[in-house]
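It would be a great kindness if you could assist me with a short task in structural biology. The matter concerns a single protein, recorded as an amino acid sequence and a row of backbone structure tokens. Kindly check, if you would, that the fold set down in the tokens agrees with what the sequence suggests. Thank you for your consideration; the sequence and its tokens are set out here:
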Amino acid sequence: MAPLVAVAGRTASAGKVSRDAVTFAGQRYLDALLRAGGEPCVITPRQLTADAAQEVMSTCDALLLIGGPDVDPALYGHEPHSRTYGVNALQDHFEISLLRAAMLLNKPVLAVCRGIQLVNVALGGTLHQHIDDDTTVAHKPVNFPDGDEFAIHSVRIAEGSQVHRVVGATNIDVASFHHQAIDELGAGLTAVAWSSDGFIEAAEHNTSWLLAVQWHPEDTAAHDPYAQALYDAVVGAVKSPSIAQRNVRVITSPNG
């Protein structure tokens, strides 16, 4: 049986196709999991107690946290920036509950874009609420949705990190669409990839199987093996649990 991967879903308003609000996850995420040999299961956002979250995750083999709106700055003790948008307290607490349950139950976790930010906040870290528009790296596309779907830029990956072992390279081009980034790292996290302007682009947990990337690998995974490798890895960690047991080399700076 294919590993069942819980995907923390989103809620959209009713429209012409659906008479009621809908729970969804982007097709590209789901396709990447299917290519990896997993079976995605989209979980409806709702209030979850710790016990309820553990019950959900006990029926699944892994967790995927996907992109989306900004994490509530109140969760890391900051006032909202003027460019912070889409904050949804229920969504934040729902995903944090699933994350904590997955880690408690030793389930592999892959976190993408907003996902890396949520993981960092859940573990006590903070965020840059807005990356200046005149930065030297294009972290998001210009004039979306009229222009490109995402920006492309390079990231440097720390040699010897789990992300390096997964993608098999230390420099790759990635699809990017974000305006926030990790500031102070949460407990147990190690930064393992950076953009050329110094923002953290990937982190991994020192004791749990948890990989988090700021870019959107699903956007290019259909033709980019470096991108698909991340989805292959989270499903592969279920199929071969021994690969989840690892020693992470501690890397503390972009020059480390």
About this structure: The mean pLDDT is 92. The CA atoms of residues 56 and 250 lie 32 Å apart. The longest helix spans residues 89-104.
